[in-house]
Here is the input.
Amino acid sequence: MSKLKYFLIAGLLRIAGSMPLGLAQWLGKLIGLIAWALPTKSRKVTDTNIAICLPELPADEQHRLSRDSMAHTGMTLMEIPLMWEWPVEKCLDLIKETRGLELVDEALATGKGLILLAPHLGNWELAGLFFSSRYKMAALYSPPHLPEFEDYMIRVRGRLGSELVRGDRRGLTRLMAILKQGGVAGILPDQSPRGKTNAFAPFFGMEVKTMTLVSKLIQKTGAQALVTYAERLPDGQGFRILVTEAESGMGDADAVLAATALNQSVEKVVRMSPEQYQWEYKRLRHRPPGETNPYNPDRVC
Here is the structure.
């Protein structure tokens, strides 16, 4: 049954991957707006996240941001098959502008490696392709629920030589070695991590479980960290790659202080393009013991 699911998904990806960007974005936007207009779980999570994280926004602006966010999430959904199925050169041609690449060059010039933090903002698949086309790079990933899909995912993401490493002990050892060699490590910093070796730190004002992996890598390798994303330009014009400095303190020995700096770094870029952030993700679900789950107020963490 799992193999049948894989062939079905792979077939749908190839069909969707044959679309031009404009059509894929139009269809994705339509899907997102339909999901926003209906009483879907995604709409409920989006509204909850925006209300908690951006309470300073008037109600009408929160309403508008919720709609725009789901439209952009739909576009991201339909862009991923393009990033996986299109020739790499065609994908890279979508990048019309870059800002902040000098920060990358300056960090790599130290020879201590670079951690690129790429939140779920804009088109993170394109950002990964762009940086793997320029630098020796490894990216941390979690195996998909469908085992047959893992080989496909590794192949399409590694077309330019990017090395994908699992988020287990062996993978982390490999990531550390690449950084010590002066390479680049790509990490999604805004996932809700599992396990007991993480820290609770504020994210848009709410204490949530936050990864300590980045701080450990910095402490053990001396690598620098920067934040990046591929911003979607209007009207199907393509994308802009942006790189910004991370907040200081990410390598602090105090896990909470380091995790706070990590979350603040994500917050900074999210505020730059809030409508392109994936507010549909339950980032706030893992809270300190005794606190309530904001997506299910009757459940205590």
The radius of gyration is 19 Å. The chain has a mean pLDDT of 91.
